[in-house]
Amino acid sequence: MQLSLLNQLRDQNPVILNISNFVTVQDVANGLNSLGASPIMSEEIAEADALVQMSGAVALNLGAFTKQQLAHIQKTGELANKYHKPLIVDPVAIGAVAYRREVAEQLFQQFQVDIIRGNAGEIAALAGMDWQAKGIDAGEGDGDKVTIAQAAANQHHCVVILSGPTDIITDGTRVVQVKNGTPLFQLHVGSGDMLSSIVAAFAAVSGGDYFAAAQTACLVFASAGELVASELPAELPGTFAMKLIDELHLVTVAEVERVARFA
Amino acid sequence: MQLSLLNQLRDQNPVILNISNFVTVQDVANGLNSLGASPIMSEEIAEADALVQMSGAVALNLGAFTKQQLAHIQKTGELANKYHKPLIVDPVAIGAVAYRREVAEQLFQQFQVDIIRGNAGEIAALAGMDWQAKGIDAGEGDGDKVTIAQAAANQHHCVVILSGPTDIITDGTRVVQVKNGTPLFQLHVGSGDMLSSIVAAFAAVSGGDYFAAAQTACLVFASAGELVASELPAELPGTFAMKLIDELHLVTVAEVERVARFA
Amino acid sequence: MQLSLLNQLRDQNPVILNISNFVTVQDVANGLNSLGASPIMSEEIAEADALVQMSGAVALNLGAFTKQQLAHIQKTGELANKYHKPLIVDPVAIGAVAYRREVAEQLFQQFQVDIIRGNAGEIAALAGMDWQAKGIDAGEGDGDKVTIAQAAANQHHCVVILSGPTDIITDGTRVVQVKNGTPLFQLHVGSGDMLSSIVAAFAAVSGGDYFAAAQTACLVFASAGELVASELPAELPGTFAMKLIDELHLVTVAEVERVARFA
C-alpha cells in the first residue's frame, strides 16, 4: 500500500479528464477537487485531443450516454492510449442492461484500459460469469468475488477493482482486499462514480504502478467514508455525502493508517 | 391514506426509471435512493425497452430536453404502457412556455399517463384554464385549484397532483388535500422533480391504486420536509436540501402519522 | 457600490435564463433561487425566443457544450441582444483549451455581450495576453491583472470581471477591486459559474448600469462566502457549499456593509 501517493496527488494537483455520468457529474468534480486533483469534464469530441494531452489521467464513465456521446468516449479512450495517459473505465450497470454490456465490449476492443472499477454485477458481466445484477446496484450472486475479479482482470489485461463492502483489487494474479467502508456509500448515488475518478487521480501520480494506485485509492476513499460515518449519530445519507467531500480534503496519511484494514 | 406503502416500498426496493431533468437529476436519484427505491437514469433510446421492463415504474420529467430527447421520452412512455408499468409525468414549466405545452400535449396523445404531478401553473395549463405562470414557478391565478386539478384529471383520465403549500390529489372525482409542508420546498430547485419520482416509487408498490399512491407519496414527502424544517433555526435552503435526503431515509410511518394533516 | 440592488433583486425576483454548464447546473439554479431570483435552464433552441422574452437577463456558460448546443448558445445570445436583455458570458477554460477559445471568439462576433466573468487565465486569453492557465483553474502568469481586465473590456466593449482572491471589475476605464472572499471558493467546483449567473441576476435589476451590477454581485457573493468561511472550524469544502446556499438566502445589506472591503 503506497499511501505516500496521497501526498503526491496533493502536491502535483493532476488534471483529471472525465467523460462523466450526467447524474453524478458535479459530485465527482467536487470529490476530485476536494481531494487535491483538478477535474475537467467535456462533452465535445473537438476538444478531446487537447484535453487528453493536458491531463494526468482519463476516467470514462459508461453510466449514461447517448449514441453520439459514444464516439466521444471511444475517441477519448484511443487518445489516452496514444498519449500514454492512465485510462480508467467505470462500466455502470452493464450487468443489468444488455445494451450497455454490448457497448462496453465494443469499446474495450478499441482501446486498452488500465483500470476497471465496478460493482460485483458489473465485474461479473465483464468476466462472463453468472450474477443477478439489479439496475445500478450490485445485486446478488453465488460466485466467489475474488475469482470473478481475477477472471475479468485476466480477460482485459488490466487491474480490476470490484468494489463493495469489501473492495477487491487485482491485476489477475495479486489480490488486495480493502475492508474499510460504510453502508452509507450504497445510500449515496455516485459513490462508485466518485471512486472511479479518484482512482484516476491516484493513477496519474503512480508512475505507472496501477495496481498500487488502485488499492491506495480504494483505501483512502473507504477510510474517508468510514471516518465520516463513525461520527454520525444515525444513517444520514445527505449529511454523509457532504461530509465525505469535507473529509476527502482533510484526511491525512496518518489518519488512514490508523483505521486501515486490508489484506 | 395507505401509509403502509412506505414500508412496502422499503421492503421491495423497486427500480424506478427516470427520464430526468438534467438540472436536478442527482438530487432526484439521491432522494429515491434514500427513501428506499433503486433509481436508474437514461438518455439513450436503444436501452429503453430493457430498462422499462426491469422497472417498477417510470417517471418522465419534461423539465429540460432537446428534440432528440423527445423521441426517447415518447418511446419510453409507450413502452411503459406496453409493459403495464405505472407512468408518471412531470410537465415542468408548460404553463409558462408555449413550446413546452405543445410538446406535452403531443406526448399525452402518444401514451396514457397514470399520474401527472405539477404546480398550479402547470396543471392549469393542462386543464386549459387561465393562470399566470412564472418560469419554473407556479405564479398566480384566480381559479379554484381543486376545480383546476379535477378538470385536468378528467381531461387526461388520470390522477393529478397539483402540488404547492397544500397538495391537491384527485382522480377527477375524489379529492384529498395534504396540508403538510414547508416554504423551504419552494426555495430548493428540484423539490417538485423529486416528488414526481417519489410518486413513481409509491406507484410501483401500490398494486395499481394510483390515487392511494399519489396521496401517500405527497403526505410522506411533505411530512419529511416539515419535520426537517421544524428543526432548523432559520430559513436555510442548503441545509434543508441535505437534511431532506437524511429524513427520507429515516422517516417512519409513525412519525408521518404524528404530524399528518390532510382532508 | 449599489448594495440596494440586493433588495431590489429580492423584491423583483427576476427570471434568469441560463444556458448552463451541465457540471454545475443544479448548484447554479439553487444559488439563484436562494438569493431571490427565479432560474430557468434550457437545452432546446425551439424555446429560446420565448424564454429570452420572459427573462430579466441571460447567462451563457461556455463550460461544457457540444457542437449542437453551440447553435443554441449563439441563438440565445442574439435574442438577448434583440430583446435588449442583459447578456452575461462565462468563458470557462478558454485559456487552457484552444478549441474553447476559438468558439468563444466566434460567438463574441455574433452578439454583443454586456458582462464577461472569468478567472485570470480566461480573461487573459480574451485579451490575447500571456498566461499559463491550467484546465478549469486560473493558473499562473506575470501580467498585471488590472491591465489584463481593462484590455479585455476595451476589446469586447463590455464590463469584465476577473475573479479570484481579489475580484477586479472594470468597464475598461473605471476599476473596482473587491477584496472579500475565501479560499474555499476555489475548493468548490461551480463557484465561478454561480457567480456568473448571480451577476446576471443583479444586471436584471440594475436599470442598465452593468458596472454597478457587476461589482455589487461580486461584493455580495464574496462577502457571503467570507461570512460562511469565518464560522467554519476547518477548511470544509462540502459544508461550505451547503452553507453558501443558506447564506445567499439570509445575507442582508447591513451584513455585507459590515464586512465589505473594496477599493
TrEMBL record, chains A, B, C:
Query: Which residues are noted in the entry as substrate-binding?
Result: M41, G190
Give me the reactions it catalyses: 5-(2-hydroxyethyl)-4-methylthiazole + ATP = 4-methyl-5-(2-phosphooxyethyl)-thiazole + ADP + H(+)
Q: Name one GO molecular function term.
A: hydroxyethylthiazole kinase activity
Q: In which pathway does it act?
A: Cofactor biosynthesis; thiamine diphosphate biosynthesis; 4-methyl-5-(2-phosphoethyl)-thiazole from 5-(2-hydroxyethyl)-4-methylthiazole: step 1/1
EC number(s) from the headed UniProt entry: 2.7.1.50
Q: Name one Pfam family in it.
A: HK
The positions annotated for binding ATP are: R117, S163
Principal EC category: transferase
Q: Which cofactor(s) are needed, names only?
A: Mg(2+)
Q: Name the keywords, alphabetized.
A: ATP-binding, Kinase, Magnesium, Metal-binding, Nucleotide-binding, Thiamine biosynthesis, Transferase
Q: Which family does it belong to?
A: Belongs to the Thz kinase family.
Q: What does this protein do?
A: Catalyzes the phosphorylation of the hydroxyl group of 4-methyl-5-beta-hydroxyethylthiazole (THZ).
Return the protein name: Hydroxyethylthiazole kinase
| Species per Swiss-Prot/TrEMBL record | Loigolactobacillus zhaoyuanensis
